[in-house]
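Notebook, bench 3.
Goal today: get a predicted structure for DoxX family protein from Vibrio agarilyticus so we can plan the truncation constructs. The sequence was checked against the plasmid map this morning, with no discrepancies at the termini. Length recorded as 171 residues. Pasting the sequence as submitted so the record is complete.
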Amino acid sequence: MTTSQLILELSLIGTMLLITSVFLVRSYDKTDSVGTKIQKILTGLLGAFMVMAGTVKFFDPFTTMFAKQITLSELPFPTLSRWVGQLGEIFAGLLLLVVMIGNKVLPAPIKYKAMQLSTLLTTAIMIVAVHVHLLPSVPAEVLPLQSKPPVMTLIILGLAWLNTFLYFRKK
């Protein structure tokens, strides 16, 4: 990992945490249950993470690594797969951020649909990511964190499902 790559990653993570923190402070409510507070934090962090993960794939070295992942995994329609992966992550993240930011002003059916669509997109993207991680033809050097086991992918998937469970539990 190069110094410039590390600086880029740290600046993106710092920006993500700052933006999420601002919106979490704005949506703080003393009367929220512990589950609701956890759900709000998860929504913000997952939303910001998904936007960041999709956005960094437009910049080197991430764009090159992502293109190699797709090529080596032999996913169908490589160009389409690349765009769907990137834009799908960004869109899923934006949906979560809309739910978090517009929690008090959006009608409940819109929030529910946004949460459902975000979870569906995240699940599909993470299942494809697990598949790519497990392929022997895809080396660890082109994967996120250069790790062959899909640990981070499964954590994100689990957190997305937990977030959705907590969100719809209060319904």
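Residues 3-23+31-170 form one domain. The longest helix spans residues 108-134.
Flagging this for group meeting.
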